[in-house]
Write a structure and sequence with these properties.
The chain is an alpha/beta fold and about 230 residues long. It contains nine helices and nine strands. The strands form two sheets. The protein has a seven-stranded mixed beta sheet, sandwiched between helices. Strands 6-9 form a two-stranded parallel ribbon.
Length: about 230
């Protein structure tokens, strides 16, 4: 068993070295083989330069910026493991979630972290506006696609490699709605899915505009629904 850990990065020059060291240290303690894939998503800062000093990581870099979904797709295309796991560069999901994940490998096609699982912990919560937008997003996604997930947008998801490669080959969304696209493809293909609890803390350093990203998110949701035949 081998796990490919994918971290999409955009303008992460300040923190990516330290965060990567934490991930690599965690990987060294695992009972299975693993690889770290860092994807420089057309960063405008010195992210690409800093990545050259990270030993033990595979680097994927390109220009221009595609978006988080595009970065995850590039990571999946480069992955050599039996499962891929993508997580946010700020490590907002505590790395202990990997320990919860590993025993479930080979049992499910997708394993998704949930900030709203009854056993999850959120010691540092998001600001009220982001919480409200997040609530709206997951409820609209659940209604639109007839899902029953407590959290569709958490940036911690593991996928069996065959399923991941198929999803990436069908993917049309490069923005944040790619999570919903993956879950929709999984539903159409009847993949097995398991939600797991996580420890999650808000990244208050995020520069993502909640209003602009939400507008694009809802536009992309419409594109996903119309693309059903292509996914099949």
């Amino acid at each position: 068993m081998k796990l490919s850990i994918i971290i999409p990065c955009y303008n992460e020059a300040k923190d990516i070295l330290n965060k990567s060291e934490l991930v690599l240290k965690k990987m060294a303690s695992l009972s299975i083989d693993s690889e770290l894939i860092l994807v420089n998503d057309g960063s405008k800062d010195k992210t690409a330069d800093v990545m050259r000093f990270i030993k033990g990581a595979n680097i994927v870099s390109y220009n221009p910026n595609r978006g988080k979904g595009g970065a995850v797709k590039a990571g999946i295309e480069a992955a050599t493991g039996d499962y891929v796991l993508f997580m946010d560069a700020d490590l907002s999901t505590d790395l202990s979630a990997i320990d919860t994940l590993i025993p479930l490998l080979n049992e499910y096609d997708l394993i998704i972290g949930s900030r709203h699982h009854k056993e999850s912990k959120m010691p540092v919560k998001q600001p009220l506006l982001r919480r409200f937008i997040g609530w709206c997003c997951r409820h609209i996604v659940n209604m639109k696609f007839h899902f029953h997930y407590s959290d569709t947008q958490c940036g911690f998801k593991a996928i069996r490699i065959g399923a991941a490669k198929y999803m990436a080959s069908k993917q049309i969304i490069n923005g944040f709605a790619f999570d919903a696209e993956y879950l929709y493809i999984a539903k159409l293909m009847k993949y097995t899915i398991k939600e797991i609890p996580i420890i999650w803390k808000d990244d208050r350093g995020s520069t993502v505009s909640p209003i602009k990203s939400s507008i694009r998110f809802f536009k992309d949701i419409g594109k996903i629904k119309k693309n059903k035949n292509n996914y099949l």
